[in-house]
Design a protein that fits this description.
By secondary structure, the chain is α+β, with helices and mostly antiparallel strands. It starts with 28 loop residues before the first strand and ends in an 18-residue tail after the last strand.
Length: 142
């Protein structure tokens, strides 16, 4: 894929085995896309798209996903049969663009298989969806 290309399902055909030497192989294949809003005041928002076998497991309520409830359950039930999920690609601290399996060295922050912001060492788990309202806060020390 080149910048500006439309994402297509066939770009993700190897999602069940894909790897890039960061974290574990076979957890899914990511891509960054631009979501354009509709209307007169068109804004472009960077989103992260991930095709992952975890979507089917979440929808089936398997293993660690059995207790998903409420609005999160509705979100998962609406996931496509093609195993895609997407989210706005912004760090909650200062609107940086973190990435899934994008940053070498993210393993030292326990983030090799997660979304990692190298500006703030923030870690987000794409396999643990939650609905929350965030205010800018520093990463917990510990």
């Amino acid at each position: 894929m080149n910048d500006g290309d439309k994402l297509r399902v066939e770009h993700f055909e190897d999602y069940e085995s894909w790897g890039n030497d960061i974290g574990s192989d076979g957890l899914g294949k990511p891509a960054v896309a631009t979501w354009r809003s509709q209307g007169e005041d068109v804004k472009e928002i960077q989103v992260q798209v991930l095709r992952t076998p975890a979507v089917s497991k979440m929808a089936a309520g398997e293993d660690e996903y059995a207790d998903l409830a409420g609005e999160i359950r509705e979100f998962i039930d609406a996931a496509t049969a093609e195993d895609f999920i997407a989210w706005v690609n912004r760090c909650t601290h200062l609107c940086c663009n973190p990435g899934y399996k994008k940053t070498p060295g993210s393993a030292k922050f326990e983030a090799a298989d997660k979304v990692y912001c190298n500006c703030h060492q923030s870690v987000y788990d794409p396999f643990s969806p939650t609905k929350a309202t965030f205010a800018s806060r520093p990463r917990p020390q510990g």
